[in-house]
């Protein structure tokens, strides 16, 4: 292991694996190590159910009512892919998708005032929905909006006009505003209302364009769970010469004159010019900015009032941080009905904060609770050349994760992340040109 590398990557979380794959394609010599014996890091998958019990330190063994242990594959941090989103583009442009199968999520819903409302997936549903009202005119405006074409602005300055003023221009009611901001633009709070409207309009466009791809919802999920996503980019890196080592203890990150020069493991030192890692490897270079609670529930039934959907997302808007319910099932070959509830912690009693979600899931099944710190880097890497990812937030989509990937890429290379440039670097994952 006493070699010189352009880059060492610590952890096989999805963020690190994507960066490893992309940098390998860009010609970097990479060593990728993880202290864990499995791929996926904190965002890995658990199977069989007996291992889930061990992970959460629960006594006994899974009851027969939960099904056969090896039939379940539980993602610890499940997130959906926006059908026209950034992660799908990364997968398509690198052709990592050639051995991964995805299936559309059957519906997107909002829970408000004790009722579940389906996010319309067709124009007919939109016109019939009690939430819509004057919404159609607004959606037409969003569909035609192009921030590079002033003719599409209709008197709105996307860099100055707030989203609150845009809603007012289209005379949208509070229910529609809540629905738009949280279910379509996927904001976790209402802070966006006082910000320039351009980003929000583009978020709604992404939702609409993703929805148009498959019709039922804008979301995709991999069959058999997410565990193969990081491994796909691992294979991509390996084809370009990347070296991988699992179950590798990290003894020390070596820094000289404020800059990383290598990593020590089992008495050997691998030298490098740059380092990518999760916060868990450099606790002294990150800070805690909050917490996320996630509750995994294994059910024997679909969620009520969702038209017996085998998979869905439900957003529960809150005054502070929204609650997300992500449900998948045997339709995605992950076992029985698995629902994961998540939100950003705001109080000292996190489980009470998600009390509205269990109402949706009754009768309640087996539950597994975790509370994770939200960690962000205090070291931006400019001097140290140590580039640290964010921990995963409470959202049920990968867009914020991809924003983090692009940010790290730009800091490491000094160049803006360009999806179009990736198109010229496609590869057959099996190693054929």
From TrEMBL:
Extent of the signal sequence: none
InterPro entries: FAD/NAD-bd_sf (IPR036188), GDP_dissociation_inhibitor (IPR018203), RabGDI (IPR000806)
Higher taxonomy: Eukaryota, Metazoa, Chordata, Craniata, Vertebrata
Keywords per UniProt: Acetylation, Cytoplasm, Golgi apparatus, GTPase activation, Membrane, Phosphoprotein
UniProt record similarity statement: Belongs to the Rab GDI family.
Location of this chain's protein in the cell: Cytoplasm; Golgi apparatus, trans-Golgi network; Membrane
Role: GDP-dissociation inhibitor preventing the GDP to GTP exchange of most Rab proteins. By keeping these small GTPases in their inactive GDP-bound form regulates intracellular membrane trafficking. Negatively regulates protein transport to the cilium and ciliogenesis through the inhibition of RAB8A.
Entry annotated with the keyword Acetylation: yes
Assigned GO CC terms: Golgi apparatus; membrane
One example of a Gene Ontology biological process annotation: protein transport
Membrane topology: Peripheral membrane protein
Protein name: Rab GDP dissociation inhibitor
Subunit structure, interactors included: Interacts with RHOH. Interacts with the GDP-bound inactive forms of RAB3A, RAB3B, RAB3C, RAB5A, RAB5B, RAB5C, RAB8A, RAB8B, RAB10, RAB12, RAB35, and RAB43; binds RAB3D to a lesser extent. Interacts with DZIP1; this interaction negatively regulates the interaction of GDI2 with GDP-bound RAB8A.
Molecular function per GO: GTPase activator activity; Rab GDP-dissociation inhibitor activity
Entries under PANTHER family matching the protein: RAB GDP DISSOCIATION INHIBITOR BETA (PTHR11787:SF1), RAB GDP-DISSOCIATION INHIBITOR (PTHR11787)
Organism for this UniProt entry: Microcebus murinus
